[in-house]
Amino acid sequence: MTTSPDVQPGVAVTESRQTPAAPSGPAAPGGRPSRRDRAGNGLTPGWLPWLLQAPALVVLFGLLVYPLVRVAVLSFQDFGLRELVTGESSWVGLDNFTEVLTDPLLWKVALPNTAVFAAVNVFLTVAVGTAVALLLAKLGPWARGILTSAIMVAWAMPAVTGTYVWVYLFDARDGFVMQTLGSLGLVDPETTNWFTERLPFFAIATANVVHHGFPFVAVTILAGLMTVPKEMLEAAALDGAGAWRRFRYVTMPLLKPVFAVVTILSTIWDFKVFTQIYLMPGGSGTNREVLNLGTWSYITAISQNRYGLGAAIAVLLTLLLLVITAVYLRTLFKQEEL
């Protein structure tokens, strides 16, 4: 057998079998493929996600952004019932905010009621929800499912219905709690009315808010507890750590993002509590000692037809929520950097 003089034995002929590469378009700066290349390769164009999100963004703008902008605009106007009918309004600048900030009702009643009530409710809601979550984590699947479904009924109950239930329980004459305590000789139903005094009023409202809010916290933290590695808890137990130390030094650091979420959401919800206050006897404005920023804003705008002043109170409440949330997130992020 003869071989070609141009080809040496034992050397594979590969160059003649190679397929020439197809010319490609110009690459984008930095080595990234151009938009035409991405489309040709089947990659998602940059505008497609925005197009798919456009319906949801339109709905969010109509339900969230526009009302916020409208309230902010109203807060700088003298807008009452006459302006509502005629459609005309006059700009007053910061006069509404000046009136609110110089009103003694803000500093002596509305702001303390709002801040203290929210702080107590956030603490109790997260504490009760965490305790319930730890209890559910110790149960078997069947018992956990039944109890989780049971506590979610309280969360699914409308706030209006739940408030009327609590009002009935503590009613001055026919309430179950009042009758029970009266039969034991602890209170006199004829002379006792807890809804007329500031502290008992907010104690009942706190029980209502915590009862309605703890199921969400419990289920959320329970989901986080299911992700905690059992090996870490077993190692801590072998080192002699008790239940409280395991929760404090193992579980809590791992679930810090979960606790941050439930705390922020509870803060927002409890600062703007309206239904649980307004529907209780005296909460609609007849007892000004139990007003908070939410009910004060509503009564000022709707009952007194001073929509601009009511909008200014609502703007102050929104700014207060933003400041508290920003401070909490800043503190949380600093702790994670340490």
From TrEMBL:
SUPFAM superfamilies: MetI-like (SSF161098). Signal peptide: none annotated. It comes from the Bacteria. Keywords: Cell membrane, Membrane, Transmembrane, Transmembrane helix, Transport. It is found in: Cell membrane. It is a multi-pass membrane protein. GO terms for cellular component: plasma membrane. Residues 1-39 are annotated as: Disordered. InterPro entries: MetI-like (IPR000515), MetI-like_sf (IPR035906), UgpAE/MalFG_permease (IPR050809). The chain crosses the membrane at residues 47-69, 115-137, 149-169, 201-228, 249-269, 307-329. Belongs to the binding-protein-dependent transport system permease family. This is Sugar ABC transporter permease. It comes from Nocardioides iriomotensis.
